[in-house]
Amino acid sequence: MRPKVEEEFNRLQREGIIQSTEFSEWATPIVPILKPDGTVRICGDYKTTVNASTPPEHYPLPKIEDVYAQIGKSKYFSKLDLAHAYEQLELTEEAKPVTTISTHRGLFMFNRLPFGIHSAPSIFQRTIENVIAGIPKTFVYLGDILITGCTMEEHLKSLKLVLDRLKECGLRIKKEKCDFLVDHVDYLGFRISAEGLAPLAEKIRPILEAPQPRNKHELRSFLGMVNHYARFIPQAATLFHPLNYLLRQGVSWIWNHEQENAFQQAKRALTNPPVLTHFDSTQPIVLACDASPYGVGAVLSQKDKSGILKPVAYASKSLSPAERNYAQIDKEALAILFGVTRFQHYLFGQTFDIFTDHKPLLGILGENKPIPQMTSPRMQRWALKLACYRYHLRYAPGQGNLTADALSRLPLRDVPLHTPKPAELVNLMTRIDDLPITAAEIRLETRKDPELSRVLRFTSYGWPENVGSALSGFYERSSELSVEDGCLLWGARVIIPRRYRPDILRELHSGHPGNTRMKALARHYVWWPGIDHDVERIVQRCEACQQSRALPAAAPISPWQWPSRPWSRVHVDYCGPVEGYMILVIVDAYSKWIEAVPTRTASSASTMSILRSIFARMVYRIRLFLITARLLPVRNFNSS
Fold this sequence. Notes:
Helix content is 34%, strand content 21%. The protein is of the alpha+beta class. Strand 23 (581-588) and strand 24 (594-599) form a beta hairpin. The longest helix is centred in the N-terminal third of the chain and has 17 residues, at 152-168. The model is unreliable at 235-239 and 409-434 (pLDDT under 50).
């Protein structure tokens, strides 16, 4: 790992991306990230420095759905990849010191936009969009630029415009990762061609090779991966419902043949996924919707020139416990609302047909029907939402609406995509090799440790219901434990075997941090039950730490003596500015009476003038205590 970091440092210095600095008010630790091609990206851990001190810049990234919806009849494709994307944007002189990183070579500040700044994606997206603004059939998503065209002439014209703009702005592309004038291109996880949209085989492979889930957490992860490709599932078997049932609150984890059949059916649905046609606003649009007792589904299709319906996208979702109690007519209406809302980026402003197998809805949600006064408030609200669209509601019996019917009976959960093995964990295990204790030693000792060997086995093959008090700390975190390269992890923290815990504590305490700092440092890298107590004990036993803490006791706070009469002591300070004025505030310590006088300037002369005018009204001898005494030289006062 270290040679790769050194090589990347040399490149950054050679290309002028970073420069050395002797002093900076900012100093961010570095985080080397291992990239898929084996090289290293050096990032700053800005979350505790710049990101915590500066407001984020908000600029929306394009929705992937919107990009695919605009491809239309394109037949020719080119994809450009900007080399070292962020590093091509120069920083202002004022911004450079803020990006300073602390390395083993000293302090360096970035001359160009670094990775890790929370506003970097927004800044980069806005900049590149401005560069290619106005070029037709061109899309940008951070460092990836897609150029399409219906004809070769149209495509070449757009491609030349993009390349000219990039050259004019001094932006470079990485030729090895670019595609020019091809009939298909891989973009944002999908394959785009003239025929339509298809998932990449390497993206589907983890789903097809996924092992049987051992708990609810793993099942949610699997369903999340399937849901990412839900638009490609034309049908789904009714046996898929048992998987969703296992995730309900209060349902025990029992995996039987019904769940296994549903699990395998979910895989088969993506074994040969269909190619989804590109949306064409000039062709007729059809939306088929249906509802079942536990889900709703919708299919967006278009008729080609021969009149054959071709799917554009599929969608489905499970009903919530409250929605399952709806009457069937409400569920069918909800399916329509779900379909229109999910595909609104295709449908808004277009005229389209909606097919339903529930005929009573034609009299309630029909495009030329007034909203009946006797319908439920819920149905009236839905009818008002649908009134924003231009549609024709059609009736299709269940046999003519099979795809939407199947989707409604096999809804996919709305769970975010889960990455089983994030690169951060792989990088973390690689960095352990640079420590006094290597990953190989931790892996070997984990198998020998009486407790961790059992935890390793349970994490890999499933936890029993009773594990005993010795493993209770691990059992409470069982859903967050994982195994990486034979080492146990809790989140991104390595679980250290008992033999190496004293060595780790000594390493963490090498700079003699206190309890709080040492615990914070440990929470970045390692964990074991009782680690906080062990940290406190080693700090308490450290002679150097105890000597540095032997400081004089703080002096006790002495309160003001209570004045015996009004205006015997006053306190003076300025506040403001308020609408261009500074306010001189005088408070009597005895009566708490306040005098507040606005003044344009807070100078000594103006302050003395105000005080004289106020004190002239008083008959008492006054002791004056100034908070902003630097404005009033002592020679201006007479103690009498």
